Amino acid sequence: MSDADGLPPLREVIAAHELNAKKSLGQNFLLDLNLTGRIARAAGPLEDVTVLEIGPGPGGLTRALLSEGAQKVIAIERDERCLSALQEISEAYPGQLTLVEGDALQINHSSLVSGPTRIVANLPYNIATPLLTGWLEAEPWPPWFKSLTLMFQKEVAERIVAQPGSKAYGRLSILAQWRCTAQKVFDVDRMAFTPPPKVTSSIVHLEPRDRPLAEADIGALQAVVKAAFGQRRKMVRASLKALHVDPIALCEAANVDSSARAERLTIEEFAALARAYSSLKQS
User: Fold this and answer.
1) What is the homologous superfamily of the domain 10-208 according to CATH?
2) 3-class secondary structure per residue, the chain
3) Is the whole-model pTM more than 0.85?
């Protein structure tokens, strides 16, 4: 018996290639092609773009991306055991799937693609945040990709989209929303995976802004945000001492309330602090 794309069901693929998920690689396989199709559709139109996928495993999402009309998929896979299963997908979609064996944290992703690109991935939990941060720190900006549609642990997803005043709001919220619009699209129950992880997952869709939400040097912004949230229970006039400039003068220059706590400041206020910090360092 085969699925709609003519390929064997994923359970059969996993059994045939003996692809037991490895905890050391953060692997949790999605077997429901209706669900992977929903993820692929959340990425937006795929017909005229290259899709970069990280950690395809046995290829459930890969198959969905190609079924939904992706012109080309470039899949980075570290686990050599999965390559033979992925090769079968490549043969079913001649010329549309390129396999890259290697560690996604060590590969220059932009060098693999040309033209409009969407990044779509069920990210291994153990590398999800470093990968996202790397994409968000891309220079120049706007970046080389059109969008990011990614699966995270629900807790991480909520940090990405969190608003000022919430407990989840922090460094990842600010970096993501300063440079992108970010939306949590839907949750994925843990029982949808093999093996089931201990937590619920969520799909997040991010689209790069043409310009960041407010002007700031990214290095200065990250320094200010790191200092402010390094002691998030304290007022910023205390936590910003870590920057080794006068925190009161810094807040006054940025027109920011020095008695506020980091989680109460907007992204625009953090950008103002970053601009003031850059100026104070140069004076």
Assistant:
1) Vaccinia Virus protein VP39 (3.40.50.150)
2) CCCCCCCCCHHHHHHHCCCCCCHHHCCCEECCHHHHHHHHHHCCCCCCCEEEEECCCCCHHHHHHHHCCCCEEEEEECCHHHHHHHHHHHHHCCCCEEEEECCHHHCCHHHHCCCCEEEEEECCHHHHHHHHHHHHCCCCCCCCCCEEEEEEEHHHHHHHHCCCCCCCCCHHHHHHHHHEEEEEEEEECHHHEECCCCCCEEEEEEEECCCCCCCCCHHHHHHHHHHHHHCCCCEHHHHHHHHCCCHHHHHHHHCCCCCCEHHHCCHHHHHHHHHHHHHHHHC
3) yes
